[in-house]
């Protein structure tokens, strides 16, 4: 039996990973939080080396999965010291202690390590991040590769799914459109929307099989954000007319975005039984959960 420690298990992907590993009795599953204490997790401050040492001493993990990061791209661009301390310094600390315990490390990274000029990208393309968030994630990748003997880097992007506690793109879309609010959506941000439970299953199977290296773990479709929103609104029975197509340059964002991005999935598709899901497949799963939620809400109102 292996012991897995999920750093950031209170987050969107972390919660899903915690659930997936917990359901398999071949693993002892533990997780950490930094702000939201759920699921009986351990508190961790990744900038505090002694804190990390104490957690590893208590749990003695075989596998460490790092989902934790400061991911707000705009915030990272204007708060570079904080972003560095968490996304780079924190990874240095985790890598240092993971190395002592000879852990396999799974590091969740991003398509933002690329500049978005020549996408979609495979795993061999040179990394050229154009914003500070992307630069810190690339630094994290290099730390893991240089310090950890057995590692897997899982690059992903636009992770979506049903989670009332999450502000992922689909949850924002559902909230706004169900309240009859308009949304401005870029037509020129091309990426690979990724269904969160599918991503968790791919990471889990990779750990089961002992897969090492760098892998793109995203959905199978490459598409722009506006068309993704249109497809989602259609499947979720929301008003597509509330979606306003715009160009990224009109948003006035501080941090540059990789526009023509997206990730190729041929490498991971050849290895795993859990294949990257299409946008249609992922959104159908979201619809099932959304419909269930609406029924439950109606039942609550009727009961009251």
UniProtKB/TrEMBL annotation:
<dbReference type="InterPro" id="IPR005913">
    <property type="entry name" value="dTDP_dehydrorham_reduct"/>
</dbReference>
<protein>
    <recommendedName>
        <fullName>dTDP-4-dehydrorhamnose reductase</fullName>
        <ecNumber>1.1.1.133</ecNumber>
    </recommendedName>
</protein>
<comment type="pathway">
    <text>Carbohydrate biosynthesis; dTDP-L-rhamnose biosynthesis.</text>
</comment>
<feature type="domain" description="RmlD-like substrate binding">
    <location>
        <begin position="3"/>
        <end position="283"/>
    </location>
</feature>
<keyword id="KW-0521">NADP</keyword>
<dbReference type="InterPro" id="IPR036291">
    <property type="entry name" value="NAD(P)-bd_dom_sf"/>
</dbReference>
<dbReference type="InterPro" id="IPR029903">
    <property type="entry name" value="RmlD-like-bd"/>
</dbReference>
<comment type="similarity">
    <text>Belongs to the dTDP-4-dehydrorhamnose reductase family.</text>
</comment>
<dbReference type="Pfam" id="PF04321">
    <property type="entry name" value="RmlD_sub_bind"/>
</dbReference>
<comment type="function">
    <text>Catalyzes the reduction of dTDP-6-deoxy-L-lyxo-4-hexulose to yield dTDP-L-rhamnose.</text>
</comment>
<keyword id="KW-0560">Oxidoreductase</keyword>
